[in-house]
Amino acid sequence: MEKILYPENPIMTVDDESHIIDGFTFMLKMAGINNIISCQDSRQVLDIIEKQKVDVVLLDLTMPYISGEELLESIKNQFPQTQVIIVTGKTEIDIAVRCMQKGALDYILKPVEESRLISSIKKAIELSELRKENISLKQKFFFQKLEQPEAFSKIITRNEKMNAIFHYMEAIKRTNEPILVTGETGTGKELIARAFHALSGRKGRFVPVNIGGLDDQMFSDTLFGHKKGAFTDASKDRQGFIEMAASGTLFLDEIGDMSVQSQVKLLRLLQEKEYYALGDDEPRYSDALIITATNRNLSRLHEEGKFRKDLFYRLDVHHIKLPPLRERMDDLPLLVDHFLEEAGKALGKKKPTPPEELYTLLSVFHFPGNLRELRSLILKAVSMHSSRMLSMDSFKRYLEENKQEVADKPLHPLTHPWLKISPSEPLPTLKQVQRALIQLAMERSGNNQSIASRMLGITKQALSKRLKTSKA
After folding, report:
1. Between vectors from CA 145 to CA 140 and to CA 149, what angle results, nearest 5°?
2. CA distance 125 to 207
3. Is the peptide bond before 111 cis (omega within 30 degrees of 0)?
4. What is the mean pLDDT of the segment spanning 24-48?
């Protein structure tokens, strides 16, 4: 399997001593950073960066021909996007201050502490990637056409919010940072994750894992695998899902249900890109992109002490928030058509024709289960279908059975602006409120009294009577 280079553009080590370069190269590769080039002649550095984009330069100060300090100034003037980390034996404070003033990201003294060096390089990589993503986002703002529309072919939509999400995904498609996908149940989080995997061009597999409800040992065993003899039933080595996703994408669903112990292990994987299989003392490194998803409010879970603050911020680098179906009602005709065709094929039936009133009927329902609920509803209707025109009976029954759930929810002025009345304004009469509600229901239902009466929770006859009264 082709190994992914990390980062996308190389880290360049510049030192006139080969053993220093070899030592840095070994440290970086042990930390999963494998895209490395080196240079021992300071006169060649600028030419190399000119021909090949470099994310980070590890630069020694004391070198023949051109000094590191002079080279630092030239790099930052000619290639300001390149991060420079000074690694030197010079301990003078004034030199360190000058280097930072000239644009160095960090100043590290030899002998180098490995954790200090790796931490500094990872920070530099993150800054470089964020800069590239910001540039890409600005370009997307001016050029609205998708570059890879085929990656989104399985997502049925013409909605503006969804289109904006697609553009954002294209802008960050080369990221190695974790991606968080949130949204209500049934909004299509895994479809978005699969689309991002296609966009990223990663050669490895897309590996989905639902980690909701796993205890800490099951979490570790499922993700990281185990060595033979790690526990009583471990009769042979077991590959974990993170290893299966090598050079690909690991999709972790239901992360809001993780135990606190598992959250610590996931944080280490995200920060260090390393993990331990159960029963193994040697760390393993992963180059998999990690996409996480949840329908829960992680910020609220954090406030309740159920989700680690550091993990929340680590996951929230790239956040894709999917809109619920009720905010995508312009997609309803497309979705209904798609699910009708899908249901027809699954049941061995000819695709039925939906009545025009069906779209109006469905558009006034709140769909707590979103796309999954709509798909299930259509599959049930097609399973009972026998004529050319699709019957609306099963839809009406379902909406009737589930309308009480909506009725029981208290209305809140903040989410229902038409309920907001200034303290200085007189209250409307019940007759005025009733008339306004009836008018709104008729507008939303396309003047269909049957649908409007369902929205208002009254019979069609009662609505007809009120309409006559209001006109009188």
Report:
1. 110
2. 25
3. yes
4. 93
Alpha-carbon distance 32 to 4, whole Å?
10
* Helix (H) or strand (E) run with residue 337 in it: helix 332-347
How many residues belong to the chain?
472
Q: Which two tokens stand for residue 330?
A: 């312009």
Backbone angles phi, psi at 86, to 5 degrees: -80, 130
Q: Which domains does the chain have, with CATH numbers?
A: 11-132 (3.40.50.2300), 144-323 (3.40.50.300), 324-409 (1.10.8.60), 424-472 (1.10.10.60)
Residues 311 and 199: beta-carbon distance below 8 Å = no
Shortest CA distance to 265 belongs to which of 236, 240, 238, 237? Answer: 240
Contact 321, 184 (CB under 8 A): no
CA 204/CA 226 separation, integer angstroms: 21
Strand order in the sheet with 289-294: 206-210, 249-253, 289-294, 179-182, 318-321
CA distance 156 to 158: 7
Tokens of 174: 């080369």
Calculate the alpha carbon distances from 432 to 89, 427, 469 in Å. Answer: 82, 10, 12
What is the three-state SS of 364-387? Answer: CCCCCCHHHHHHHHHHHHHHCCCC
Residue 247: what pLDDT?
92
Q: What are the structure tokens assigned to 270, written together?
A: 């995200």
In 10 A of CB 215, how many CB atoms? Answer: 11
Distance CA 394, CA 380 (A): 8
- 382 pLDDT above the threshold of 70: yes
Residues contacting residue 207 through CB under 8 Å, at least 6 positions apart: 241, 244, 245, 248, 249, 250, 251, 288
Q: What is the mean pLDDT of the chain?
A: 87
Distances (CA, A) of 429 to 432, 433, 472: 5, 6, 17
Q: Please enumerate in sequence order all residues whose Cβ is within 8 A of that of 169, keeping only pairs 6 or more positions apart, or say none.
A: 192, 195, 196, 199, 320
DSSP symbol at 6: S
Higher pLDDT, 288 or 455: 288
Q: What is the C-alpha separation between 357 and 446, in angstroms, rounded?
A: 9
For 259-306, write each residue's pLDDT tens digit: 999 999 999 999 888 899 999 888 899 999 999 999 999 988 988 889
Express each pLDDT in 57-82 by its tens digit: 999 999 999 999 999 999 999 998 89
* pLDDT recorded at residue 421: 62
